[in-house]
Amino acid sequence: MSGVGISRRKAASSASVAPERLKIGEVARRAGVAPSVITYYLSEGLLPKPVKTSRNMAYYDVVTVEWVTLIRELQESSFLPLRVIKKLVASGSSPAQIRESFVARNRTVTSSEVEVEEKVLLERTSLTRKDLRKLEELEVLTPKKTKGRRVYSIDDVSIVEQLAQMRDAGLTAERGFGVEQMAIYRNAMERLVEKEVEFAVAGIAGSMGGEDVAKVAKVWVRGANEIIRALHNKFIKRAVRQLSEGMKGSP
Fold it and tell me: Of 52, 62, 73, 166, which has fewest CB within 10 angstroms of its CB?
């Protein structure tokens, strides 16, 4: 048999076992999320980096679909914050191994894994105790008091961590970005949720059984969160663009 024939067979064999590569849209479709979720998880170091073939084109390993699906399950079923999930991803375990521990067994997460004491929160962020009290006064944070200690939920911890990152990036009170500004978000979200509940009660609760309502509500909450994030991102970009154009036109 000629060397050329063997080479061709080897090349064909190599091509047949080449790892499947997916564009971001296909990863999102298979995982049942928006492409922006993939981008966000990637920026947080939760996903393997894609192979870039050009400035605007990248291909993801097919295992990325498993990671995205698992991350959503850990967030929604086990109520794990992204900081904990990031440690699991970095542990070297496969998605299947992590799922076996946290999802398939329906493991109950202990309060110490999903709640953080005030002392720990202050140690790992740049916010002060005064900042936390102000956020509590605004009802942005709603800690529980356990044996005289304040304990913060996953959502509260996420809010504090994001505020700390913004402050560390230069968005300080001196520049008009004090914690008091969080009242804007709280008030807007409260009004939005009131409207959501109104049409949800009218359109869902009155025509479905309890189990169906729970299933629909889960999809609704996830979808609404993505829509809110996407709309906010779009409006912020538009506002910044308009501001930038206005500054260019000013003398």
Answer: 52
